[in-house]
Design a protein that fits this description.
The chain is globular. The chain contains 5 helices and 8 strands; from the N terminus they run αββααββαβαβββ. The protein has about 240 residues and is an alpha+beta fold.
Length: about 240
């Protein structure tokens, strides 16, 4: 349903008055035209929702952190690699302290090839992903999602600890179940090489489910039902 006049003046995530519009996902996820081949444009018809200061202006550092973590993922497409090597690296050069994103860097293997892993700040990343999911709900249904949301990222793996295998297997199960459940639903996204998503609302629970794909390689799932609690972590 289209947003009411009241909801157009209220933040997508709370009842406070909106002072600006928030891009969904944040604009920092989308490559700038100056960094792309001639004629390429991945900022066409970006989704926006009304936002208060807390849910837009005050979270720019978390948006950049999340774009860093997601764009560096090894399964991403060529546009993600270009985006990381241009816009993201420019931001790090301007603010060297941002290099601290790579916490506890350690050697790892991906498909038998040497690589590196690092500790992810789940509170910052999950917070960004939750805001995107809530904004998508507002975009489609014209109201604030009042329920809780759990965030799962099947492309981030736990590489140590006695529960690593169990946790990683559970994430893959959630991903498989989500793909099956959302299979017949429309794939949304004007710039699918950068971001696309599917969603479903079950008013009988109530429950909201959205599967988001960044750069054709990094998957994030947000869901809500009466059985979950805020702050669920998967790694």
């Amino acid at each position: 349903m289209p947003p009411s006049q009241k909801s157009q003046l209220s933040c997508y995530a709370c009842s406070r008055p909106a002072i600006s519009k928030e891009h969904v996902p944040p604009k920092v996820f989308f490559p700038e035209r100056k960094d792309l081949p001639t004629g390429a444009d991945y900022r066409r018809n970006l989704i926006t929702v009304p936002a208060c200061a807390e849910h837009n202006l005050s979270k720019s550092k978390d948006d950049m952190y999340s774009a860093f973590v997601i764009s560096i993922h090894y399964e991403n497409s060529a546009p993600a690699q270009r985006h990381f090597s241009t816009k993201v690296m420019r931001a790090i050069r301007k603010r060297p302290a941002m290099a601290s994103f790579l916490k506890n860097l350690f050697p790892a293997a991906v498909g038998g090839l040497p690589s590196a892993g690092f500790e992810v700040d789940r509170q910052r990343l999950d917070g960004t992903l939750e805001k995107i999911a809530r904004a998508l709900y507002y975009h489609h249904y014209g109201e604030v999602w009042e329920g809780q949301l759990a965030i799962h990222t099947p492309d981030l793996f736990m590489l140590g600890g006695s529960q690593a295998g169990e946790v990683n297997a559970r994430m893959q199960q959630i991903e498989a179940m989500t793909v099956q459940k959302l299979g017949p639903h429309t794939v949304h996204g004007e710039n699918p090489q950068i971001f696309r998503y599917q969603h479903q609302l079950d008013p009988q629970l109530p429950g909201f489910l959205v599967r988001m794909v960044f750069y054709e390689g990094f998957v994030a799932i947000a869901y809500s039902s009466p059985s979950i609690s805020r702050g669920t972590d998967d790694a």
